[in-house]
Amino acid sequence: MGTIQHVTDADFEQKVLKSEKPVLVDFWAEWCRPCQMIAPVLEEIANSQDKLEIVKLNIDENPATTAQRRVTSIPALHVYSGGELVKQIIGAKPKSLLLKELEDYVG
């Protein structure tokens, strides 16, 4: 099962846009309480399935990708498939709601 990796401006294209699997990117920051609240939920989802890669991108450390992807509020969860943005989830949600939003990708 999956573990959550960190991506940066330097490897975003390779690890996310060129991935064979759909990828959920968690745009987050250290100071963001809602980001901290959903982190364990994303870990649980990553560990319970292998259809969807889950990665984290720290917006403070990676401003280029953050701006390029037009992330204006966090937590922002973007799902990319085939290099395209296919889903956006803004804000912290309980696991049941996140799984419902992601059901097309996690089965």
Automatic annotation (TrEMBL):
Pfam families the UniProt entry points to: Thioredoxin (PF00085)
Identify the species of origin. Answer: Phytoactinopolyspora halophila
What PANTHER family does the database record attribute to this sequence?
A: GEO12009P1 (PTHR45663)
Thioredoxin domain residues are 1-107
Which positions does the site annotation Deprotonates C-terminal active site Cys cover? 26
Which PROSITE patterns does the record cross-reference, listed alphabetically? Answer: THIOREDOXIN_2 (PS51352)
**Is Electron transport given among the entry's keywords?**
yes
- Residues flagged as site, Contributes to redox potential value: 33-34
Q: Which GO terms describe its molecular function?
A: protein-disulfide reductase activity
Please give the name of this protein.
Answer: Thioredoxin
**Disulfide-bonded cysteines:** 32-35
Active site (catalytic residues): 32, 35
